[in-house]
Design goal:
The complex is a heterodimer. Chain A is mainly α. Chain A has a domain of 67 residues. Chain A is built from 23 helices and 4 strands. In chain A, the strands form 2 sheets. Chain A has a two-stranded antiparallel ribbon. In chain A, strand 1 and strand 2 form a beta hairpin. Chain A is elongated and about 115 Å long. In chain A, 53% of the residues are buried. By secondary structure, chain B is mainly alpha-helical. Chain B has a domain of 213 residues. Helix content of chain B is 80%, strand content 0%. Chain B contains 22 helices and no strands. Chain B is globular, with a radius of gyration of 21 Å. Chains A and B meet through helix 22 and helix 23 of A and helix 8, helix 10, helix 11 and helix 13 of B.
Chain lengths: 597, 473
């Protein structure tokens, strides 16, 4: 955990010597990966008294955290390799690498921490590095960075409140010792902590910074953070709180609430994704939407759903980061991510295109890729809890497939808009190929992650099920396939109607009812951040006028008062010694008469 | 053998003025430097063999009672350090060898006067030494013989003469009342209550000293005298002459003779507060660097008076410590002012700017001096101001302690104005760093400020804690 931090600072120090810093970043992440492989499957507790207030600096490594660490290390390594090439020649590249490494270290710390305060420390520090990484992006990114920072900061505040209530209820802040029921205050604590967790994962309604960041921040950032690390962290925390810290039953309100948030997120975000005309922005909405599936899965609180949610978490991290990477390759080679200016890239960038096809199929849930299996598990859980959630999930799946058909069609097929586009450099291709390969591996051999990683996490709660292999419920599979076929049909119909891959889903965009919602959302009117900012403006106005009054006292009143006093004192000194002698004698007289009294 | 501190310079002074002046002129500087450094070392060391051994014949020949206590040690140390700084500045600002020789002679005379003042335990001898110092100072202020120098010297002369008349009148009354001039005899005589004429004498005496010390409203000669004097003389005047002639004598006579009764106490507190405020606000309006520093001196003297006015050990120790610190940082700031003057030829702060870049030593040391004057930890000025404010609060004078704290803001304000106008900002002149002697003086004084600030606990135990004796005598 310490390792990337030290090396991150080293990279920061080396920012003048470009090649050295790049190399250092790659080596650092590789070393981090090696360490986490070694630690994987280990169980360790490291504990040391800290700042003498009863808090312990306590780290705990067990199967879930070890797995998350390993996953983060792997992504860290692959994406750093990618970003070294991608960021070459851009300003702030070294700063970016340094921040990535420091963030990696902080994320490791947050995952390993066995003390809520310690976790909160790492968690909040991540907000700062996040701000830095977005701000590296360029001129507009500063605003976006601030927006992200404020949203996450407020959510972290919720987390802090939740932790405080937890500590109050449980009498300890050591995570592994806390067990709380969700009645009364405990429910409040759960809500606060869940807000902290799902906001980090990027769920609605805390998502609005992600699409903005997609356009403004450096692309590798999107692949690393909203794509992979933040999902891992957020879902990790959500799992921890719903499985370890709070005792929840599948038919409690908490479960219902989580599933609702999940369902709304996945449908809402995918609807937005459908109409995007920018490669990265479209992907960023999917990043939000997929979180909905995970929250839905974990929210069922059934073993099948939780396994599905966790499996989906890792799958999503895989294909989403790979999709962002394909976006990065396209941006690097063509200079734009505007879908209207792209087209026909499939022939010119074959490797990128193949990776895109694999990962797009994964995210749409096409068998036999990994996304299919995890989604089936989630469907299974959702169906058991209520048909409405199942339909939401299926509908989301339909829209996901439709939007990726649109994206693929618009970017890689159709008439080329630009000639002479070359394939991306090898260092950028390698991470994409590896991740796409993992997508296939986790699909075909899904028993590997499920039996090796996820089952031990749930332990005895499994009731003898083995969720690996082909899904048990054949009907669900049938429905899924039908939905996918429907999506293709929808796309083809739309394509025929409009004659363009990009506009193939316009009939949904301009469907009655949806249209106004879209318009308002595009203008940011439904963005809670903007609403909050308007409210803040009112407060700021009141505060500013109050401030002006105080300012006036400081800036005008005090100096002018001082000026008057100074001026009159200076005027009194007329330079005539007779006056001065008179003063002295008069003062002497006064003092003597005072003493005589 | 404390009388040696008077005798040796006196004999040396005569020897220097014997014929064959060419050699003597070269020797004068080194002789004076040696004297002052010896004085510093003796005052730090306070070795009993030197201070307590009585030379019967010599002392009786003088008919002066020298008695040295810890207050005297601090003052002697102060005199030594500031005189050294002044001497170093003189060496590098006055280029005509003859003129410099005269100035060094006068410097030695002034330092004899001051050393005598702080060592004597006899009210008339004290007056004599005060006058020696004063006369040397008149000539030193008028040294450049231009219209401003003469004006400044004349104002000082007039007000000082007023003070002399008051002090002499007072001494005459006191001799009539006590029949002797030693501190202890007068002390016994004046403490019997109800004698109005004695109270008048005390009032006259204290007011005379306050004229010499430049306490508001007796202060008006101070800015003219300080700014008209040549560089090295303003260092000496601002640094030590007024402190010894006015403030030390005030502290000494009140603690040893008159005692601090309720009326005197409230008069001192009031005068101190007025001095602090008037000095600080007047400094705010100055454009001439030396004048600003002069008003700043008045304000700092207010702090000393107000601290002394509490009458508690903490307050008096704080006042003495602030007296010492003020000598150091004000001397430092005046040394730096003289460095600027020697390079720029003006003291108008509107014509300066960016000097820090060209005069790094001067710029850096003046930041130290400024911060110390404003009372920023851990520099020495912070500790003494803290002691004074705490003492005021403890003795129940909350209003005065708040004035003292708030005036600190004004102090910082005018010092920052000076710093910004003179040393920071855009530079518009091509100047070079000051000469070696001035640099040495600046670094020495800045070192004292930092060193004392850091080793404050040690300083307190060695120099300030023994001051208890002067209250309880």
């Amino acid at each position: 955990m310490i390792l990337p931090m030290v090396l991150g600072i080293l990279v920061f120090a080396l920012r003048r010597a470009r090649p050295a810093a790049d190399l250092c970043a790659v080596i650092a992440t590789a070393a981090n990966l090696a360490v986490s492989i070694l630690l994987f499957k280990g169980n360790a507790v490291f504990s040391r008294a800290w700042i003498g207030l009863g808090f312990e600096f306590s780290l705990r490594l067990y199967n879930l955290s070890a797995f998350i660490i390993l996953a983060m290390a792997a992504f860290g390594f692959l994406l750093t390799l990618y970003s070294v090439v991608f960021m070459r020649g851009k300003s702030g590249a070294c700063l970016f690498h340094a921040l990535v490494l420091i963030s990696l270290a902080l994320a490791n710390g947050a995952v390993l921490a066995n003390n809520l305060i310690l976790m909160l420390f790492f968690w909040e520090a991540l907000g700062i590095t996040l701000w830095g990484m977005i701000a590296v992006g360029g001129r507009h990114s500063f605003r976006t960075a601030t927006k992200a920072f404020i949203i996450l900061g407020i959510c972290d505040l919720c987390l802090m409140a939740g932790i405080a209530v937890c500590g109050h209820l449980a009498g300890t802040l050591t995570i592994s010792k806390i067990t709380i029921t969700t009645g009364g205050l405990g429910g409040l604590a759960f809500i606060f902590m869940a807000i902290g967790a799902i906001s980090k994962a990027g769920s609605m309604p805390f998502h609005t910074w992600i699409p903005d960041a997609a356009t403004d921040a450096p692309l590798p950032f999107m692949a690393i953070f909203p794509g992979a690390l933040e999902k891992l962290l957020g879902i990790y925390l959500l799992t921890r709180i719903s499985l370890d810290m709070f005792t929840l039953s599948p038919d409690s309100w908490a479960s219902f609430a989580m599933m609702s948030v999940g369902a709304i997120t996945l449908v809402g975000a995918v609807l937005m994704a459908l109409v995007q005309k920018d490669y990265k922005r479209l992907l960023s909405y999917h990043a939000i939407s997929q979180v909905g599936y995970m929250i839905l899965g974990i929210g069922t609180l059934l073993p099948v759903g939780i396994i599905g949610g966790l499996f989906h978490m890792i799958n999503n991290a895989l294909y989403k980061s790979c999709l962002f990477l394909t976006g990065g390759s396209v941006e690097k080679q063509t200079g734009t991510t505007d879908l209207e200016k792209l087209g026909g890239l499939g022939r010119m960038m074959p490797v990128t295109f193949i990776c895109f096809i694999i990962t797009a199929a994964s995210i749409s849930g096409v068998p036999p890729f990994n996304g299919f299996f995890s989604k089936e598990l989630i469907y299974d859980g959702a169906l058991e809890r209520g048909k409405i959630f199942y339909f939401a999930a299926i509908f989301g799946s339909f829209l996901t497939a439709a939007s990726f058909l649109k994206l693929g069609h618009a970017a890689f097929l159709g008439k080329p808009q630009k000639e002479d586009v070359k394939e991306a450099p090898v260092a950028m291709l390698v991470p994409m190929i590896i991740i796409a390969g993992l997508c296939i591996l986790f699909g075909l051999w899904n028993s590997l992650p499920i039996t090796e990683i996820f089952r031990p996490i749930l332990g005895p709660g499994l009731e003898g099920h083995n969720f690996a292999g082909w899904p048990a419920n054949k009907n669900l599979v049938l429905v899924t396939i039908l939905v996918l076929i429907a999506a293709v049909a929808n796309h083809l119909w739309g394509f025929k109607r409009t004659g363009s891959g990009l506009k193939a889903v316009d009939h949904i965009h301009y469907a009655p009812g949806l249209r106004t919602v879209y318009e308002k959302t595009e203008k940011g009117k439904l963005d809670p951040y903007n609403l909050g900012m308007k409210l803040a403006d009112v407060f700021a106005g009141a505060a500013a006028s109050c401030d002006k009054a105080i300012d006036w006292i400081y800036n005008n009143f005090t100096p002018s008062a001082a000026g008057v006093i100074t001026g009159s004192i200076v005027k009194l000194h007329d330079g005539n010694y007779r006056t001065y002698m008179l003063w002295s004698i008069a003062a002497t007289a006064i003092i003597i008469s005072f003493l005589l009294k | 053998m404390p009388s040696l501190l008077i005798l040796v310079p006196l004999i040396g002074l005569v020897a220097l003025n014997l014929p064959n002046k060419d050699i003597m002129r070269k020797l004068a500087f080194w002789f004076a430097l040696g004297l002052f450094i010896t004085q510093i070392l003796l005052a730090i060391q306070h070795h009993p063999v030197f201070w307590n051994y009585q030379l019967e014949k010599m002392d009786s020949f003088f008919r002066v009672n020298f008695s040295v206590d810890h207050l005297s040690f601090i003052m002697l140390l102060c005199i030594g350090i500031v005189s050294t700084a002044s001497l170093l500045v003189a060496r590098h600002t006055i280029h005509d060898e003859k003129e410099r020789f005269k100035l060094i002679n006068l410097l030695i005379i002034a330092s004899i006067g001051m050393s005598g003042t702080v060592m004597t335990s006899d009210i008339f001898s004290m007056y004599i030494f005060l006058e020696i110092t004063a006369i040397a100072s008149f000539i030193l202020i008028a040294f450049e013989k231009n219209i401003y120098a003469l004006e400044g010297a004349f104002k000082y002369l007039m007000l000082s003469a007023t003070a002399t008349i008051m002090i002499l009148t007072s001494i005459a009354i006191l001799i009539l009342a006590a029949g002797s001039t030693s501190f202890s005899d007068i002390s016994q005589a004046v403490r019997s209550p109800g004698n109005n004429i004695v109270v008048v004498a005390i009032g006259l005496f204290l007011c005379g000293l306050m004229i010499k010390g430049g306490v508001v409203p007796f202060h008006a000669w101070v800015p003219d005298a300080y700014s008209a004097a040549p560089a090295s003389v303003s260092v000496l005047l601002a640094g030590i002459v007024t402190k010894v002639a006015g403030i030390y004598t005030l502290i000494r006579t009140i603690t040893a003779i008159f005692g601090l009764d309720g009326a005197t106490r409230s008069a001192l507190l009031m005068l101190g507060a007025i001095s602090i405020l008037v000095g600080a606000f007047a400094a705010l309006g100055q454009k001439n660097m030396k004048r600003m520093l002069a008003y700043s001196s008045i304000s700092q003297i207010g702090y000393i008076i107000i601290g002394f006015g509490t009458g508690t050990f903490l307050g008096i120790a704080g006042a003495v410590f602030h007296l010492f610190n003020h000598s150091m940082f004000k001397a430092l700031l005046f040394v730096n002012a003289s460095a600027v003057e020697s390079r720029l030829g003006t003291m108008d702060m509107d014509k300066m700017g960016g000097l820090s870049a060209k005069m790094p030593v001067t710029g850096a040391t003046s930041v130290i001096g400024m911060l110390s004057a404003a009372g920023i930890p851990p520099l020495s000025g912070f500790w003494s101001k803290l002691m004074i404010i705490v003492a005021l609060w403890r003795s129940g004078d909350h209003a005065y302690s708040i004035i003292a704290i708030l005036a600190g803001v004004v102090t910082l304000a005018y010092l920052l104005i000076m710093q910004r106008k003179a040393f920071f900002g855009k530079d518009n002149e091509s100047v070079s760093e000051a000469g070696l002697g001035i640099k040495t003086a600046s670094v020495m004084l800045a070192g004292v400020l930092v060193g004392i600030g850091i080793s404050f606990p040690f300083i307190f135990n060695r120099f300030l804690a023994p001051l208890r004796e002067i209250i309880h005598r």
